[in-house]
Amino acid sequence: MSGKTIWRAATAALMVGLCSLTFADTVTKEVKEAVLAKMTQIITTYAYVPGADFSKLPDMLSANKVDIDKATSESDFQDAVNKTLAGFGVTHLSLQTPKESAERVDGATVGLGVSVHVEEDGSGILVIRVVPKSAAEDAKLKPGDLISAADGKPVHTPLDLQGKEGQPVDLTVKGPDGKVRKVHIVRRKFSTVRPEELEWVDKDTALLHIYTFDLSYDPDNVDKLMKKAASAKNLIVDLRGNGGGLVSNVQHFLGLVLPNHTAIGSFINKPLVDRYVKEEHGSPNDLKGMAAWSDKKIHTFDSGAPAFKGHTVVLVDGGTGSGAEIAAAAMRETLGTPVVGTKSAGAVLVALMQGLPDGYTLLFPITDYVTAKGLRLEGNGVTPDVVAKDPLIPLPGTPDEVINQAVKLAEHPSSVKKVGAD
Questions:
Q1: pTM
Q2: Domains in the chain, ordered, with CATH?
Q3: Which of 69, 136, 324, 346 could be a cystine partner for 239, CB 3.0 to 4.6 Å?
Q4: 3-state percent breakdown (helix, strand, coil) of the chain, nearest 5
């Protein structure tokens, strides 16, 4: 996998694909220099991934100096820096703009309030989700609508819909029925938080959607939903598009489905590697050996209630990353839970968020992760037992092959042929 591909996968795993852009602010030379100086100090001092030499960062930034110097907007500066960081070939290493940093904390942003898919034929962008209580919902935009123009100008990417709060836009929209209509929308702030949801596929099967393990994950809500699901014979856990988040939130959820205090994996950091080499005379690249040797295991939290007793199935796709991959792997290793969907992102490093000058934020890795059975997820991901693709537009009544396959496995769990270690 190339560095560029890995960076794109990591970015997809960390961000929600909402069309919520505003005009980018300019960035000065002084701000760029301050951000780069602090970023370099943090990465060269604290970042750690087995096999990665972060001391090379100053030389790598110098090699990309032309692109960095000519960047005049926050997004262009971010792109140039992240292009450089992608050269390390690891995930969880990226610069976030002040806007992105604020959105993560506030759980809100400004825009239309839609998730979109760019049409390859250049005809426009396809709406695949409308955010509740957003300007798009008020304007009656629907999944399946094709936005071809904004204020009379062709729309080819989400950038063509950018705008400030309170700024109106007239869209040319083609519905699934082929009819073209004009839609007037005034951009406004909307919530990016998507609460966890529970639905019943049939009388025996509950479907739990967990969209993130990040700051907006709600433990109390998940507790309530799991109590409702307790009577089900089967539980499908939908982690598609879940880019991960806080390890503590993953531990909380797993405490509801796995036995209390179950060891789910080990963190591999520089001090542990040094100890393993010194005390055991082991190889610094023997992550599986280190994980088995380490007394620093990661465990599930004690939920205070019995874990779910029925059959479980977990759903993943290419947007499933980080903590969500940890959860899926732990369920498979501990419960034998079959995994359905497409291969996950393989972006599983423990990382920290550090503030930088002028509101920028740096995400940087400090620890690798190995599952309880010795599988390194970074770069490998979780390979499904049964491959099934997501529907592009999850319209009501539209068959979801991933869920259909999951229901079959829940009813006949012994029918799945395990793929074993990924």
A1: 0.78
A2: 3-106 (no CATH), 111-191 (2.30.42.10), 197-410 (3.90.226.10)
A3: 324
A4: 35, 25, 40
